[in-house]
């Protein structure tokens, strides 16, 4: 919908941030526009009342837990009593005009969704990054405001718009444990990108999104903390010590890991080391490769009517190894989906154990190699042929393999 023209002679908008915590706000209307306004008002901790005979399912979901009061009827004069702010967002221009008129009479600022030229307040395009709020008015054009807002947020996220002023002034350092996702930088969370953009030191795994490291400013120190399978690796104790050392020196430290820090990532060991040293630490979850990699290859880990569970196991040691903590007999009896991480070399032994404990030998298996990268490959086989397939195709880590009927869905 094109923006309502606004006469420049009416004056430019005066930008201001409303602190609505505990303040009554009335939203008249129950459609998509009302839902978006209510979501933002709740984020500001306003006490929201919605007046409308009907509301969207998403808006009704906010009413259920008591976050919103819903007056299930049409608007009536007097509904704005005791309000600090109002939104007129119905499909009826006449109703919106009546709401705006009552707001004007009561000296309440009112955003009229259908006619910006008749609103006493304009709702900006808003974005948030931590405690920074980006609010943009586009001269009466909402799409223009959205484009500028998104550009500023993107710059804050990737570091092209630096937020160095926001650094703590007390000289204290901190650590952020960031899950980088399955490898594609586009699958890393916004919060993770924000942390990376303000880092002084980055300790990165080889499975983390490597392309993000090349975009870091020259002053950022990058430490290779890779752990290659059966190969060179930095000891976990050394990683813990470096995190603490740099943080105690007043640096912002990011521990950039592949997948999720707490899914076979030893992230909690790093958290314990930081807290023991009195270093503030934050955890930023990531898209675990156990779900992300199969999904990118077209293999869902669950499907309605087919499986009610999926189990993720580490295959870094075979089933008969003294260090194995997996109850393989129980896993073999499961009917749902099994996802195996770090299980390339041990795949033949794991497949044999699953068959021994109840899984049919012809159970479908999908092997995804180099997931979330341009080199991603997918092989379909069965438990009986898994070892031969891995050998024939020259499969090497990183690889994820999935066992179960869901494998056949993407074929």
Automatic annotation (TrEMBL):
Q: Matching InterPro entries, A to Z?
A: 4pyrrol_Mease, 4pyrrol_Methylase_sf, 4pyrrole_Mease_sub1, 4pyrrole_Mease_sub2, CobA/CysG_C, NAD(P)-bd_dom_sf, Siro_Cobalamin_biosynth, Sirohaem_synth
According to the UniProt entry, its GO molecular function terms are:
uroporphyrin-III C-methyltransferase activity
The reactions it catalyses are: precorrin-2 + NAD(+) = sirohydrochlorin + NADH + 2 H(+)
Q: What keyword terms does UniProt attach to this protein?
A: Cobalamin biosynthesis, Lyase, Methyltransferase, Multifunctional enzyme, NAD, Oxidoreductase, Porphyrin biosynthesis, S-adenosyl-L-methionine, Transferase
Tell me the route in metabolism or biology where this protein functions.
Porphyrin-containing compound metabolism; siroheme biosynthesis; sirohydrochlorin from precorrin-2: step 1/1
Tetrapyrrole methylase domain ranges (all copies): 175-386
Which Pfam families does the annotation name? NAD_binding_7, TP_methylase
> What parts of the sequence cross the membrane?
none
The superkingdom listed in its UniProt entry is: Bacteria
Instruction: Give a GO biological-process term.
Output: methylation
State its Enzyme Commission number(s).
2.1.1.107
User: What PANTHER family is this protein classified in?
Assistant: S-ADENOSYL-L-METHIONINE-DEPENDENT UROPORPHYRINOGEN III METHYLTRANSFERASE, CHLOROPLASTIC (PTHR45790:SF3), SIROHEME SYNTHASE-RELATED (PTHR45790)
Its name, as the record gives it, is Uroporphyrinogen-III C-methyltransferase
Species this protein is from: Klenkia sesuvii
């Amino acid at each position: 919908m094109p923006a309502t023209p606004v006469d420049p002679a009416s004056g430019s908008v005066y930008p201001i941030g409303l602190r609505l915590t505990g303040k009554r706000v009335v939203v008249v209307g129950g459609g998509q526009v009302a839902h978006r306004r209510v979501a933002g008002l709740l984020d500001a901790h306003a006490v929201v009342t919605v007046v409308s005979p009907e509301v969207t399912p998403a808006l009704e979901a906010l009413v259920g837990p008591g976050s919103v009061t819903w007056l299930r009827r049409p608007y009536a004069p007097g509904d704005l009593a005791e309000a600090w702010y109002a939104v007129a967002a119905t499909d009826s221009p006449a109703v919106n005009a009546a709401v705006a008129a009552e707001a004007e009479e009561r000296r309440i600022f009112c955003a009229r969704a259908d006619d910006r030229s008749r609103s006493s307040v304009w709702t900006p395009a808003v974005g948030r990054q931590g405690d920074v709020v980006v609010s943009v008015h586009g001269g009466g054009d909402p799409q223009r405001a959205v484009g500028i807002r998104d550009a500023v947020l993107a710059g804050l996220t990737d570091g092209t718009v630096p937020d160095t002023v926001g650094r703590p002034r007390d000289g204290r350092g901190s650590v952020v444990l960031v899950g980088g996702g399955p490898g594609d930088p586009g699958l890393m969370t916004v919060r993770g990108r924000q942390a990376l953009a303000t880092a002084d030191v980055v300790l990165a795994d080889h499975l983390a999104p490597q392309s993000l490291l090349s975009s870091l400013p020259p002053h950022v120190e990058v430490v290779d903390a890779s752990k290659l399978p059966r190969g060179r690796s930095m000891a976990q104790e050394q990683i813990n010590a470096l995190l603490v050392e740099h943080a105690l020196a007043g640096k912002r430290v990011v521990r950039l890991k592949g997948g999720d820090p707490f899914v076979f990532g030893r992230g909690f060991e790093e958290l314990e080391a930081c807290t023991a040293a009195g270093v503030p630490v934050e955890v930023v979850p990531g898209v675990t490769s156990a779900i992300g990699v199969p999904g990118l290859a077209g293999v869902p880990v669950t499907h309605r009517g087919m499986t009610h569970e999926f189990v993720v196991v580490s295959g870094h040691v075979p089933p008969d190894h003294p260090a194995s903590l997996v109850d393989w007999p129980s896993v073999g009896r499961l009917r749902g989906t099994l996802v195996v991480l770090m299980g390339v070399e041990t795949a033949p032994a794991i497949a044999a154990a699953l068959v021994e404990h109840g899984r049919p030998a012809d159970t479908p298996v999908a092997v995804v190699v180099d997931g979330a990268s341009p080199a991603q490959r997918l092989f379909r086989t069965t438990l009986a042929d898994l070892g031969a397939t891995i050998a024939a195709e020259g499969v090497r880590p990183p690889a994820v393999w999935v066992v179960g009927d869901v494998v056949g869905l993407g074929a």
